Amino acid sequence: MSDEKRLTILHAVSEAVPFLATGGMGQVAGALASALATSGRNLNVCVVTPLYANFRDRFLPQMKYLGEAVVTLAWRTEYCGVYSLDQGGVTYYFVDNRHYFDRERAYGYYDDGERFAYFSKAVFAVMDLAGLMPDVIHSHDWQTALVPVYVRTRAAEKYGGVKTVFTIHNMEYQGKFPQGILTDVMDLWEDEIGLVEYDWCINLMKGAIVCSDRLTTVSPSYAREIQFGGGYGLDAIIAEHSGKLRGIINGIDTVTYDPAADPLLDKNYTYSTIEDKLKNKLKLQQLFGLPKAPRKMLICVVSRLVSHKGMDLITYMMDDLLKLDVQFLLLGTGDHEYELFFSERAVHNPDKVGVNISFNPEIAGKIYAGADVILMPSRSEPCGLTQMIACRYGTIPIVRKTGGLADTIRDCRAGEGNGFVFDEYSSGLLLSTITQALDLYTYREEDWKNLMREAMRCDFSWETSAQEYADIYEELKDA
């Protein structure tokens, strides 16, 4: 492809590493942009994201101030400062508005609808100030779902020829608001309500599904599930637009997550020196106050403590699990009932259970390196990164067959595999699968090591996925 045909791709996203990541979307958006920039395809990759207070002071000295604009949001006129930063082959643009983004958290406020309607409008102000005319705008989840809607409506005169891609990271969060904000906040007209109205409310994700030129989600299995019972009410809308839907599995940053070079590890190792993983296990047991036990299976959970992550299954079988010759560690925060349950089990079983109720990436890294098994018995899981990171470190996932877990983990009991997979959402089946894993671990040590090596050899890098996204961009440009 010649320079004249170089494609400019602008990602509109509410968070992105290395600046902010509250969950998987922020990790994915930043990693995907970086992978696209180094993919070997002729792409000019840009990202626009809010300038949040929690990283402003650290990065602002490196940024270039491009200017300011006025963003109109119905009857409001709001300041929009624009900064840029080139990093890793990607140009990042930051939207500065302290009224909306100088807050303790990124989300969870009464005016979130207004905040991200503003941000979606500000994306076009950024393009105006930067002199950008992208070939494709790629927006992510409900926070930027209005971008493809505005391309069809408010911004159509100037940007109507721009193609749009919308990625669903999690169907559960759709951006639902009362109908009254349509004209007062969203800056849409009454006769445009059909674009965003669903089930008697404003549903921003529905608007993006309808208005985008291409629709993606984060695994092939999840793309099927959200059309048939897993769409949280939008199944029929997604099925209607299934012709433009594609499931593309997420990747992980294999440079950051590398047991051979990870600075968090007490002992680095590769699949050729897998015995050195044991040193990390012993340190992890010590960190959580458990007895050092080299040959006692260490089962771990790194998760949000909510029911759809399978926490109810784990609580139902926990007493039976603790009758086995295992240790159990948990890191995470979430629903108070689960936090209390696991904390109490740790108090009553100090030699078998260690719990840390927090979000702590450093400790999570030590768990990936030191655990024998990681549990992900999710009711639903769009993609999941934890199981891929665990494999990278030779920690064996036990997962339920759903979404991205089904697409990334192959059951070793059915032949060559990289983990254990069970189908039915059942605490009994989860316990049975753990028991079979324990038998393999205890009585067939060399087979277990081979399973670890197989897991570590899996390629979960972003390279293949980035090529699939680049294909979509080129298809859109040629359409």
Mean pLDDT: 96
The rough form would be described as globular
Number of helices: 20
- CATH topology category name of the largest domain: Rossmann fold
Major β-sheet annotation: 9 strands, mixed
What is the total number of structural domains? 2
Indicate the radius of gyration in whole angstroms: 23 Å
Structural class: alpha/beta
Please describe what this structure looks like.
With 479 residues, the protein is an alpha/beta fold. It has 2 domains: 3-251 and 463-478, Glycogen Phosphorylase B (Rossmann fold, 3-Layer(aba) Sandwich); 271-456, Glycogen Phosphorylase B (Rossmann fold), CATH 3.40.50. Helices cover 39% and strands 20% of the residues. The protein has helices at 24-37, 53-59, 98-101, 112-130, 146-152, 156-159, 181-184, 193-196, 204-211, 220-225, 235-240, 277-287, 311-321, 336-348, 361-370, 386-392, 403-408, 427-443, 445-456, 463-478, and strands at residues 7-12, 43-50, 64-73, 76-87, 90-96, 136-140, 163-168, 176-177, 197-198, 201-203, 214-217, 245-247, 297-302, 326-331, 353-356, 373-376, 396-400, 420-422. The chain has a 9-stranded mixed β-sheet, with helices on both faces. Helix 1 crosses helix 20 and helix 12 crosses helix 15 (361-370). The longest helix has 19 residues, at 112-130. The model has no long low-confidence stretch (mean pLDDT 96).
